Amino acid sequence: MQNFFKIHPNDKAAVALKPLAAGSALDVTGDTVTLLEDIPQGHKFALCQIAKGEAVIKYGAPIGIAREDIAKGAWIHTHNMSTGLGEVLTYTYQPQLLPGLPAIRESYFRGYRRADGRAAVRNEIWIIPTVGCVNNVAAAIERKAQAFRKGTIDAIAAFPHPYGCSQMGDDQENTRTILADLISHPNAGGVLVLGLGCENSNIDVLKDYLGTVDERRVKFLVCQESEDEIADGLKLVKELAEYACTFQREPIPCSKLIVGMKCGGSDGLSGITANPTVGRFSNLLIGSGGTTILTEVPEMFGAETLLMNRCENKELFDKTVTLINDFKNYFTSHGQTIYENPSPGNKKGGISSLEDKSLGCTQKSGSAPVRSVLSYGEKVSVNGLNLLSAPGNDLVASTALAASGAHIVLFTTGRGTPFASPVPTVKISSNTPLAQHKSGWIDFNCGTLTDGKPLEELGEELFHYVLEVASGRKVKAEEAGFHDMAIFKQGVTL
Prior knowledge:
Layout: E1 4-5, E2 13-16, E3 25-28, E4 31-34, E5 44-46, E6 55-58, E7 61-66, E8 75-76, E9 81-82, E10 108-113, E11 119-120, E12 124-129, H1 135-145, E13 155-158, H2 169-183, E14 188-195, H3 203-210, E15 218-222, H4 229-244, E16 250-253, E17 258-263, H5 274-287, E18 291-294, H6 304-308, H7 314-333, H8 344-348, H9 354-361, E19 370-374, E20 384-388, H10 394-403, E21 408-413, E22 425-429, H11 432-437, E23 444-445, H12 455-470, H13 476-479
Parallel strand pairs: 12-13, 12-14, 14-15, 17-18, 17-21, 18-20, 19-20, 21-22, 22-23
Antiparallel strand pairs: 1-2, 2-5, 3-4, 5-8, 6-7, 7-9, 10-11, 10-16
Helix pairs in contact: 1-4, 2-3, 2-10, 5-12
């Protein structure tokens, strides 16, 4: 196993791949660096003298500014480095000549083909409340409806949430849009929409967002109009199950597959192992004609120009500028700094600034050109790499990916988390100790890169693993029976 990793030839910092002791003499491309203090796994040490006010370089780019003189071999972290980010910026489009993607290759998964021609990787029955007031009713129906699971039905799941009423403006619009997106998601072979009756986002209102629906696939129940809402709900779920059972898995080309990409609880190895592996996967899927979606806009701050300059045209560049600056304005309008990130867990894992986090985060996008920029709740309509407006919060961002059409979410992590989303959520560890310690959470381990496994080989392994998941292999959160969702809340509650 390597002891450390220098990511880019111009870097002034390297990353410890395991705990390194003070006094260790390391050969860094022919130069001896003697460590002045213990360096925890995932943390950085200086490869040269860095003067106070000078940029600290990692990934070949600035990740912050030295607060004080930093000696060669010293630990670099929040105590001696700070962010270099400013407020809203002006950007210039400088198109980047991108490396070629893998040649288009015929790849398939065994999925479901819906009546409207869309592909699905699961055949589930979803119970979606329009308002938090009926969450417990939805949960009761979910428990009793397990008796109807049969044939090709993968799961029957409710998606409680606290919204749907006492909301205004964008919050109310977000709730209606996300609920409508989930109701129409192809992974649901049948959907029971469960309303109360008096809420702002009631069923009649939601129907305007849904447009024409297949009455075999979507059923509606207003609890205030039912004498026994649980009994009536079970009757409708039974009908939905009979319909969903008619679908069978069949070979579907990967050009129909949409995969969301998200990270959370990152550490200093995430940008070296897990995120580049997902980037390699993204290139392979796009090279097979498929689609990936990258989100968590606040974790693009500091690396946004890398994405902007990969936009296919000036119009997409302008949309990406708006995507970034709108989120910065969102923070400042609430009196918050735009760089109040990384989290305590990130810092413990070795991430020292938002630039440090963002440059690692954007590794998930691979090297494909940006082909579309989506607003929150907007559905994918263009194959290739898409950018999606959503915050960094794990549940909110993963739900947003599903709402935009992702069949599966790839979630890289250096700290671990058990959460799920409305679609299969693959947990990808950045380090082997996490994969071993939380084997009930982690689905795929990228820590093997530090043992010398080539990135290209691991990317291929992840590609084939995702096709297995798309073909029915359950991820750990599914095995545990977890299904989560969360909606972006920005404003007041009445």
